[in-house]
Every structure is written in structure tokens, then in C-alpha cells.
């Protein structure tokens, strides 16, 4: 798994005009290919009279799914430069749709490549990106007596506390960067006089 990746901070739209053509870039985070395709379909529906609705998306922290469409523009002049911009900026789990309303001036292949790639780059700058970090999920089991203080200490030291469950004992689910696991074990033993139990689970991504 990748240690970290970037994604779009939020859904949004950024518009630019080049030689009287309007280029409207809609960006959104997408957890799956189905989400990305649904977003593309929604934008197309919003702009039924547009000359083109070109798209690109990248799914997977390792960019395992990459798709692009020129939607009638000359081959390789729209979807591919859009995809290249997402890849160059290391953006994952994201979808971009650039809607073009033709303004009467032909841009040529080079102009189109710059326009479509640039529209995505400008939209990323305008909307911002988030970095997501790989975490190891871990469960800490502790007695009721120590649970409150331990939870406070975890939050005070900036740990990613995901869930707290009270039963016979208290279980606290946290996210840990892999590199911190050994140091955390030592800290936990010191904080609870060796009474807490740590179990490591699977991996997930969280805000860095």
C-alpha cells in the first residue's frame, strides 16, 4: 500500500475562458469507479448543450484505475492531458469533468491539450487538496478505572481516536502510522502500568 496520497478537498467547479471558449472544470472526490461514473453522468446532465464533456478519473491509492475520455475532441487532446494533470499532482480517488462551450475560435491540438490540462490544474489550485496517510488500525483494551485518563492522553498527544466502546472492559480503536507502533507500545505500557492490551488490525487511510 502507498504510504500516502492526495485527493480533492471538496467537490466544486472552476471556470476559465480561452479564445472565447468556456472551459468549466467540475472536480469531486470519488471512492469507487461507480461514484466517478455517476459524477460524470450528473455533470453531463447539467450541461446537455455543451460542445464536449470530457472526463478523467483516478481510483486507488496506487492509481490502479485510470480512465479518460475526449468526448469528441481530437484523440488525446482532452481526457489524456486531464488525466496527466491528476497524476502529476499525485491526486487519487478523484474525478474531473471539463465541460467546453465552443466560442468559435479553433485552438489546435496543442492549444486543446494546454486548455484541458490547465483547466484541471487551476481547479485543483482553487479547490485545494488533502493528504491522506496510511494507518494501522489498533485496538487498546483497558479497565474502566484507567479508560478516561487514557482516552484524554491519547487525544492530547494527537492520536487518531476512532471509536470508544464500554463493556466489561473499555476498548479504544485508534489509527497509528506503522512507524509509530513500537514507540506507542512502550508509551501505552508506561501510561497504564502495563495493564492495557494492544491488538493490531488491518490498514486504512486517514487525514494526515
Characterization of the model:
This is YigZ family protein. Pfam families: DUF1949, Impact_N. It comes from Streptomyces maoxianensis. The protein has 208 residues and is α+β, with helices and mostly antiparallel strands. The protein is 33% helix and 39% strand. The chain contains five helices and ten strands. It has helices at 33-46, 79-88, 108-127, 144-156, 181-191; strands at residues 4-8, 12-18, 21-29, 52-59, 65-69, 94-101, 129-142, 160-166, 170-176, 197-207. The strands form two sheets. Strands 1, 7, 8, 9 and 10 form a five-stranded antiparallel sheet that branches. Strand 2 and strand 3 form a beta hairpin. Helix 2 crosses helix 3. The protein starts with a strand and ends with a strand. The mean pLDDT is 93.
Helices, by number, come to: 5
Q: Report the span from N to C terminus.
A: 16 Å
Q: Specify the structural class.
A: alpha+beta
- Low-confidence blocks of residues: none
How much of the sequence lies in strands comes to 35-45%
Helix content: 25-40%
Q: What order do the SSEs take from the amino end to the carboxyl end, as H and E? A: EEEHEEHEHEHEEHE
The profile of the biggest β sheet is: 5 strands, antiparallel
Q: Radius of gyration over alpha carbons? A: 23 Å
Oligomeric status of the shown chains? Answer: single chain
The chain-level mean pLDDT equals: 93
Question: What characteristic shape results from the CA principal axes?
Answer: elongated
Total count of strands: 10
Amino acid at each position: 500500500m502507498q504510504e500516502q496520497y492526495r485527493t480533492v478537498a471538496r467537490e466544486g467547479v472552476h471556470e476559465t475562458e480561452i479564445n472565447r471558449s468556456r472551459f468549466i472544470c467540475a472536480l469531486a472526490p470519488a471512492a469507487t469507479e461507480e461514484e466517478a461514473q455517476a459524477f460524470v453522468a450528473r455533470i453531463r446532465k447539467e450541461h446537455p448543450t455543451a460542445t464536449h464533456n470530457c472526463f478523467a478519473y483516478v481510483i486507488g491509492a496506487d492509481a490502479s484505475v485510470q480512465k479518460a475520455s475526449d468526448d469528441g475532441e481530437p484523440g488525446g487532446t482532452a481526457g489524456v492531458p486531464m488525466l496527466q494533470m491528476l497524476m502529476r499532482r499525485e491526486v487519487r480517488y478523484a474525478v474531473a469533468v471539463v465541460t467546453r462551450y465552443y466560442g468559435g475560435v479553433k485552438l489546435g491540438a496543442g492549444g486543446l491539450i494546454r486548455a484541458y490540462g490547465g483547466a484541471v490544474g487551476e481547479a485543483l489550485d482553487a479547490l485545494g487538496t488533502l493528504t491522506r496517510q496510511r494507518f494501522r488500525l489498533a485496538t487498546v483494551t483497558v479497565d474502566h478505572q484507567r479508560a478516561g485518563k487514557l482516552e484524554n492522553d491519547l487525544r492530547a498527544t494527537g492520536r487518531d481516536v476512532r471509536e470508544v466502546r464500554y463493556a466489561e472492559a473499555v476498548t479504544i480503536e485508534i489509527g497509528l502510522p506503522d512507524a509509530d507502533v513500537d514507540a506507542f507500545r512502550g508509551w501505552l505500557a508506561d501510561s497504564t502500568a502495563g495493564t492495557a492490551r494492544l491488538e493490531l488490525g488491518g490498514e486504512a487511510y486517514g487525514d494526515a
